[in-house]
Amino acid sequence: MTLEELTVKIKDVADKYADKFDIHRDDDWYMFKLQEELGELTQHFLMMTGRARAKGFTRDELRQSFKDEVADTFSQLILLAAHFEVDIEDAVESKWFQFLKD
Description:
CATH superfamily: MazG-like
Strand content: under 5%
Order of helices and strands: HHHH
Shape: globular
Helix content: over 70%
Structural class: mainly alpha
């Protein structure tokens, strides 16, 4: 799946969720939702690595919850970029891949 195809699917899921729960998404919402998901990712990382209480979850459950939070954080970043019309591929090309040029 290409990044463009992934973005379309992520936006579709987010649109359906927002409609179902009557969520108004403005500029702030996209940034704050990403921050929320990053906090959850950090929490699950700490649990998975033994630096926070596991709350009764098994090692496999902790690993899965970490993966789920990676997906949530990634998806929210994709939504933020789409909302602000940031072409992620172009941005990565100019910011990161410049260091590959000799």
